[in-house]
Amino acid sequence: MEKRVRVRFAPSPTGGLHMGGVRTALFNYLFAKRHKGDFILRIEDTDQTRFVEGAEEYIINALKWCGIPPNEGVGFGGGRHAPYRQSERKELGIYKKYADRLIESGHAYYAFDTSEELDEMRKRLEAAKVVAPQYNAVTRQNMRNSLTLPEDEVKRLLESGNPYVVRLKVPRNEEIRFHDIIRGWVVVNSAQVDDKVLLKSDGMPTYHLAHIVDDIEMEISHAVRGEEWLPSAPAHILIYKYLGLENEMPKLAHLPLILNPDGHGKISKREARFPVFPLSWKDPREATPYLGYKEAGYYPEAFVNILALLGWNPGNNEEIFSVDELAERFDFERVHKSGAKFDPEKAKWFNQQYLRKKSDEELANAFEPILKDKGFSAEKPFLMAFCRLVKEKVQFVHEFWDQGKYVFIAPDSYDEKVLSKKWKENSKEVFTSLMNAFSSLEKWEVAAITSCFHEAEAAKGKIDMQVLRVLITGVAGGPQLFDMLELIGKAAVVDRMNKALAKLQ
Ligand code: GLU
Predict the structure, then answer these.
(1) 269 labelled catalytic
(2) What is the tens place of the pLDDT at every residue in 278-332?
(3) Single residue among 207, 222, 241 that ends a domain in this structure
(4) Which domain holds residue 388?
(5) Is the pTM of this model over 0.85?
(6) Atom in ligand 1 nearest the alpha carbon of residue 225
């Protein structure tokens, strides 16, 4: 029988969750949803030196904002596998049992080396031109561990409370084979794998041991994680094997990296010229906060849609997908092996697509506080009409102001380029007569404004629409002219034209 799908997102609370992390969470979420399985949030906080205050809360809030909440785990309610924080699980003695099992079966050992001794070893190996010095089947023979020291000395050291770590005993020359859903079969020689620390001297398990124990105990069916974990996968395979858990281990899927727009290197939060965090993030150890997608004006649906297409494709040209639609289509077959280039301009385009789908009322509600901030207010129907009109021109709600502020403020300067090119000798007269025709219009609405304009043209000859726009708004471009005139209102239009014509010769 196939295992029930249970996947986990297992971040370490070492900082704000960046977009790569959210993408990992998203693919886990989609896979669980597609297979009606469980999506678990496990906090991997065994490295106390890297713990960052506020990171866990941030992760929880980010998943909520993205609309991809786990159904089990820290911050989302317990299941029968609680607790879901590794530091709490350690207190229950969960990991030590497994480390002991490995020691008893001869697949792990105690190592008593001090950090000075480890440094010395590294220097010695570097001096001997060893490219990647590591604690392994060869070098361990010259170190202080339970494989080299006499048994009674080991016993004495352990009993006297001497600090020690537990290391995995990796064979010297053995082929390690494993299957990755995205990458296929991977073969690595154990000579490339170091004797990883499994339990640290403070009794905390390392990630390598802890995640394996938890994946087994939490009945995880698929471990879906970033490509950066691929190099440690061979060591993990050995641990499963030595614990006799090869048949129970989750299937592995290592997701491709998200690359910079130029295709070089992983996105870096310090260099990126676009947000890399879902929500604004202030690291307590750094002075400057990072702007989030949310605060930059992105809709969570757009953000999720963008991330889904970084490394996965639906197999056709479709691009716009809701989370539910993604979950219906998502599978690992269509996840690429190679890194996915992030395109910040395309990201904005996605937001625009979602913005266009919003109702006028939603947009008006979102724009209202921005308008208020600028010192203006308007009735809801007016704001809705404004948003309907300007919507085509913006990618974000906050851009409504820049794109349409002239609806609220009469211009005090006029686009010189347009006027110098198009202002004719008789322009003043032509526009004055149009203004008079406007002012005697009874019904101020698009159809009437349009025919009034055409009648004026019939009488006076072609009237340049762009000049008319500049007289009323000051700027050369914008949404549909006559719709905009209707919105600005007759009195204001006439008044603005009057003032402009008085200024222009
Ligand atoms: N704690 C690891 C991380 O921070 C999790 C890796 C995994 O999913 O196995 O990315």
Answers:
(1) yes
(2) 999 999 999 999 999 999 999 999 999 999 999 999 999 999 999 999 999 999 9
(3) 207
(4) 360-404
(5) yes
(6) 8
